[in-house]
Amino acid sequence: MTAKTITEKILSEKSGRDVTAGAYVEAIVDSMVTHDVTGPLAIEVFEDVTDEKSELPTADDIVFTLDHHAPADGVEAANNHNILREFAAEYGTHQYEINDGICHQVMIEEGFVEPGQLVIGADSHSTTYGGLGAFGTGVGSTDLGTTFATGELWFRVPETIRFEVQGDLPDGVYAKDLILKFIGDVGFDGATYKTAEYAGSAIRELPIHQRLVLANMAIEMGGKAGIVEPDERVETFLEDQATLDVSVDPDLASDDDATYEATYTYEGSDLAPQVSKPSNPENAVDVDDVVGTGIDQVFVGTCTNGRYEDIRVVADVLAGEQVAPGTRLIVVPASKSVYEKCLETGVLETLVEAGATFQSAGCGACAGYHQGVLGDDDVCLATANRNFPGREGSMDSQVYLGSPATAGATALYGEITDPRDLETTRYGDHVSADVGVVR
């Protein structure tokens, strides 16, 4: 049998055919998700293709979330919420309310994603699911609506680009820094309709919340999917997070002699914290190149870096300190459960006492809808995935992208700051910082 990548193995399994990159397949979809922006159109398409009221055999595989305009910021948004609520009540799909969380975080927390599965969503960051070893990808509302009816969708099996990082990552360097580095090296369209596969000893050592970051931002280099080989860490994570008893198939790994379109190799110890300058994620530079840039707002959150461990990093940096005068810090957890953990552990209290605004879970600030929109000439450093012109508000604002550690250090000083200057020490899954050492 031909040697295969993880992507080729998953799409072979889901199509019932032995396929490699370039083949076209009709594949069975395990789970699908949409939200209050893309969901109404998917429902409209479903109703058009079925042409009459019918049962929905895929109902248990469909997830709705109200996360973009949540809470509703206008009548149109409120009406869209009601469209999803009414459809879910009628057909029995899974439906999550405002503040339950961002769709990708909900999918993971609630156990809708397992290694080796094929998961689609009417949201480009559905690539996130590759952090668990699934093939996750974004599709249009039209494709999603037809998949509601059929449970299947056609794909071209993508080629794979391998990003291999060996050795240990230095303190202050995280998955966000890795993915910004990768995007900077290949360009914003350098992996168009390819799978970005992340491998090497440094990747294997990453906790799951950081692997999800790598998969999430594959789309920022044009990727059809991003994927990390699943292992026992995934099994433990899913048991703890979603109470799933999952055993990873060792054959799911890419074969040693699999064919890659390209391979990029890195030595972990050579890497530095990265920041993407406005207004494209591909504008990634070492943080030293932009240290001292004045910042009006720091935004921590999104489906990329809105998990508890990310927010905890920022709280560790700011514990007993204050956000710099003239700087706003907006913190938005990725889900209600993340919010609750921040509350239970004192992270929320630490951040509020430091001067942060802590908000309910959602996508509003990231997409520039509400809950932290930027004005003309505002400069922001965000843990988000995109910094296009107008992405978070005014077309005349500027957004830099960085890790939670960089965000915390920047909020403390009001200018882009190298987190390594805080003498951070890595332990567990987050950073503790002695913020009193360097001034």
UniProtKB/TrEMBL annotation:
Binds 1 [4Fe-4S] cluster per subunit. It catalyses: (2R,3S)-3-isopropylmalate = (2S)-2-isopropylmalate. [4Fe-4S] cluster binds at C303, C363, C366. Keywords: 4Fe-4S, Amino-acid biosynthesis, Branched-chain amino acid biosynthesis, Iron, Iron-sulfur, Leucine biosynthesis, Lyase, Metal-binding. Catalyzes the isomerization between 2-isopropylmalate and 3-isopropylmalate, via the formation of 2-isopropylmaleate. Heterodimer of LeuC and LeuD. This is 3-isopropylmalate dehydratase large subunit. The gene is leuC.
